[in-house]
């Protein structure tokens, strides 16, 4: 078996690669079917397996590096960078997560059945996400043999998919399949997308010249398709073409597809930026170019509403993605802090660390503190907000703590009052033996040196 038959390019192999290259052909509940030069088998993610930041995965079509094991499950060590990929909002995450559908493909075949199953709004979604993937989309109107006259639907699809190849085909009779020859080259990967009943598996079988995917008919009562494909799978066809078949999607939520939407709606965006007001919301303001285009019949209200809705979905998913990335970053910081806490708990044992002051740049060492703890700079008396409770090192703030006052403890010892610049938190820290005495005195007498009232003001007279 040769991994290059599965679209791998040796030039994409990192110089410091560890493991052998493989491609994922199917995903089954955390277990991955893979192919490589050694053969085909199963693999699981190794602990700490690397992948590109911000990417989900691995998924079908991904190239990975793995620790090959002949007699058992191999271990995936790293997911290699993707050339293209297609994702949607994960329906199992209440809209808060991203689900990878397929990766590293050259073309996206968007299938839509002719007849009662033809839905222009659904096509707009698929086209936007296909353009966003970075691959070249093509629109295939299937089941041409079941419709007497599909001229109107073909023209409507060509209008929606400007700049995209649109083909009416029939996998059952072979009608129109010869038009796809330019896409079906050995070593090229094609992903098949579309709703249930669009004929994805049937078309894959027709292109393969035999039954490689199980198929089923449509329901008679509503003409809608059944879910035949239950998982995404990559197949190597006899002609050398790589096909990724995907299950029909009941929900196709947008996930950060701004560029894809722009590519899919050029007829809408040509009117943007020409309104009388630069901040026009296109909700009835005077001089709105979008409203004028709709009035003149240059832009349909349905087309504009679809564009607006997809933009809003993409914007919201982007906000959720930013929120999740920030949450993940904070969780990593907290985990790091907790690991450090386990190594040394400064609530119960001395803190003898040296550090460089973030404010004045002085090198601070523990030897001259005169106590078991060193918690601020002796030169400028500044500190850093690292504790929620003294010594726990559990704060994620990290802001600079400024000395703002001095108070006297019960035993007569002085303590500094610090306030965080970032969050405003207050803390009390015992002074150290080598603290700057002049600065301590200036902080202590500041309320007396700058009273909030004039000292010469006469005392109020007694009644």
UniProtKB/TrEMBL annotation:
Entry EC number(s): 3.6.1.-
GO BP terms: ribosomal small subunit biogenesis
Domain EngC GTPase intervals: 103-250
Cofactor: Zn(2+)
Origin: domain of life: Bacteria
Keyword line: Cytoplasm, GTP-binding, Hydrolase, Metal-binding, Nucleotide-binding, Ribosome biogenesis, RNA-binding, rRNA-binding, Zinc
Binding site for Zn(2+): 275, 280, 282, 288
Binding site for GTP: 142-145, 194-202
Subunit and partners: Monomer. Associates with 30S ribosomal subunit, binds 16S rRNA.
HAMAP family for this protein: GTPase_RsgA
Function: One of several proteins that assist in the late maturation steps of the functional core of the 30S ribosomal subunit. Helps release RbfA from mature subunits. May play a role in the assembly of ribosomal proteins into the subunit. Circularly permuted GTPase that catalyzes slow GTP hydrolysis, GTPase activity is stimulated by the 30S ribosomal subunit.
UniProt record similarity statement: Belongs to the TRAFAC class YlqF/YawG GTPase family. RsgA subfamily.
Name under which the protein is recorded: Small ribosomal subunit biogenesis GTPase RsgA
Organism, as annotated: Anaerotruncus massiliensis
Lineage, top ranks: Bacteria, Bacillati, Bacillota, Clostridia, Eubacteriales
């Amino acid at each position: 078996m040769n991994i290059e038959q599965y679209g791998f390019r040796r030039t994409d192999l990192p110089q410091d690669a560890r493991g052998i290259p493989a491609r994922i052909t199917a995903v089954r509940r955390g277990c991955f079917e893979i192919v490589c030069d050694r053969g085909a088998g199963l693999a699981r993610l190794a602990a700490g397996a690397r992948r590109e930041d911000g990417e989900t995965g691995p998924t079908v079509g991904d190239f990975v590096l793995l620790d090959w094991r002949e007699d058992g499950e191999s271990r995936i060590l790293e997911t290699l960078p993707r050339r293209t990929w297609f994702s949607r909002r994960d329906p199992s995450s209440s809209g808060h997560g991203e689900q990878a559908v397929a990766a590293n493909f050259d073309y996206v075949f968007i299938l839509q059945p002719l007849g009662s199953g033809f839905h222009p709004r659904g096509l707009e979604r698929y086209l936007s996400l296909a353009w966003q993937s970075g691959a070249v989309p093509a629109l295939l109107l299937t089941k041409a043999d079941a419709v007497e006259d599909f001229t109107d639907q073909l023209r409507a699809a060509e209008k929606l998919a400007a700049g995209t190849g649109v083909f009416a085909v029939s996998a059952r009779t072979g009608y129109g399949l010869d038009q796809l020859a330019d896409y079906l080259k050995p070593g090229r990967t094609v992903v098949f997308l579309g709703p249930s009943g669009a004929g994805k598996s049937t078309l894959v079988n027709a292109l393969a010249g035999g039954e490689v995917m199980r198929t089923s008919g449509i329901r008679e009562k509503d003409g809608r398709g059944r879910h035949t494909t239950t998982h995404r799978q990559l197949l190597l066809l006899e002609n050398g073409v790589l096909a990724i078949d995907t299950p029909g999607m009941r929900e196709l939520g947008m996930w950060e597809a701004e560029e894809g939407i722009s590519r899919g709606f050029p007829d809408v965006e040509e009117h943007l930026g020409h309104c009388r007001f630069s901040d026009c919301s296109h909700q009835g303001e005077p001089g709105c170019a979008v409203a004028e285009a709709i009035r003149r019949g240059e832009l349909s209200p349905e087309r504009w509403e679809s564009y607006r809705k997809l933009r809003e979905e993409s914007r919201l998913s982007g906000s959720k993605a930013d929120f999740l990335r920030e949450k993940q970053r904070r969780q990593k910081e907290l985990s790091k802090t907790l690991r450090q806490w386990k190594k040394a708990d400064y609530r119960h044992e001395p803190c003898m660390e040296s550090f460089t002051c973030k404010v004045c740049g002085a090198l601070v060492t523990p030897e001259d503190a005169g106590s078991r703890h060193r918690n601020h700079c002796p030169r400028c008396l500044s500190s850093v907000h690292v504790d929620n409770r003294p010594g726990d090192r559990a704060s994620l703030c990290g802001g600079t703590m400024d000395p703002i006052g001095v108070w006297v403890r019960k035993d007569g010892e002085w303590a500094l009052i610090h306030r965080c610049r970032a969050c405003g938190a207050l803390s009390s820290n015992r002074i150290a033996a080598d603290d700057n005495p002049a600065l301590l005195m200036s902080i202590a007498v500041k309320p007396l040196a700058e009273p909030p009232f004039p000292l010469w003001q006469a005392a109020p007279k007694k009644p």
